[in-house]
């Protein structure tokens, strides 16, 4: 998967920008605030979801613009690497509605996953292992989505049914029992599909990680746990979930939320070499485990989908020592695919093996360099 051309219109601080890139490594350098991360965020919108910042659509519109923005890419994807035109954005008349077009035809945002898999690491993710379970679930779901584009549809429908069930439970014992049972059947169907996809992704990822060395990047051991902190032994069946939701109606009504189910699971990691929980590891070790995890997942996607995902690595190189930085570049170049990296100094990317496309970003302006 390769983005051959990227165009931005009124996106963040970019009034009108265009980048033409080749396969391999793409290096973006420039001062803080120049707009490097904005470029990565624009690319992340070419996959289902809210992008790497999870920002509201209206926040992405350039200050002083007319109220809309557009992101367009010409992508080489699929076995024959035929060009595909992907576009997304909002219009001033409908600022809260995201528009997606694939080869010029309107499409749902979830359809983007059929063409592109995109993974990213940003400085905001450095504390993933010590933050909320919700952040780790979203991270896991992005990994799943890269392998199973249908995962977003199941997740959206599960969340919609969960909200509707919560409103009905607020009226217990007067809630419509038949409608409640129907919603719980929907929750069970989509929850079981979500859980099966998560379990399959973790199994594939764990197998990939098991075959990798503990250095130069720390190797994590991953486990999915339930709301009680117990390791999940097997995937939920739809029937078991349906029973669970029915049995917990009064508990959930009293709590004001659904207290058990796939939406309450958590992803935990342990440093393979030391056996220490990731949450108790140093910041450097946590960053190394995240990087190791994303690189292994890239290998998983390549095996399962036949093409490597696009990697977005924001300010990752600056936080690695020279030995690990060189190891990262060699790994990225050796595995193929396209990876976009940002950094404040051009010198951070001097040791990159080719092919490399280099850009200097300054004040919303982008120019080829090197």
Describe the protein in words.
There is one protein chain. The chain is an alpha/beta fold and 370 residues long. It has a domain at 1-116 and 309-370: P-loop containing nucleotide triphosphate hydrolases (Rossmann fold). Helix content is 35%, strand content 24%. It contains eight helices and 14 strands. The protein has helices at residues 36-44, 133-147, 151-169, 177-210, 238-247, 249-255, 283-305, 322-335, and strands at 2-11, 14-20, 24-29, 69-77, 82-91, 94-102, 105-106, 118-121, 220-225, 266-271, 310-313, 338-343, 356-362, 365-368. The strands form three sheets. The protein has a six-stranded antiparallel beta sheet with strand order 2-1-4-5-6-7, covered by helices on one side. Strands 8-11-12-3-13-14 form a six-stranded mixed beta sheet, sandwiched between helices. A two-stranded antiparallel ribbon has the order 9-10. Strand 13 (356-362) and strand 14 form a beta hairpin. The longest helix has 34 residues, at 177-210. The mean pLDDT is 92.
Give a short overview.
The protein is of the alpha/beta class and 370 residues long.
The proportion of residues in beta strands is 15-25%
Q: Assign the CATH superfamily of the domain at 1-116 and 309-370.
A: P-loop containing nucleotide triphosphate hydrolases
Bin the helical content: 25-40%
User: Tally of extended strands?
Assistant: 14
CATH C-level category of the domain at 1-116 and 309-370: Alpha Beta
H/E series: EEEHEEEEEHHHEHHEHEHEEE
Largest sheet: 6 strands, antiparallel
Task: Tell the overall outline.
Answer: globular
Low-confidence stretches: none
**How far from one another are the termini?**
24 Å
- Total DSSP helices: 8
The radius of gyration is 22 Å
* Class by SSE composition: alpha/beta
Order of strands, main sheet, comes to: 2-1-4-5-6-7
Mean residue pLDDT: 92
CATH architecture term of the domain at 1-116 and 309-370: 3-Layer(aba) Sandwich
Quote the CATH topology of the domain at 1-116 and 309-370.
Rossmann fold
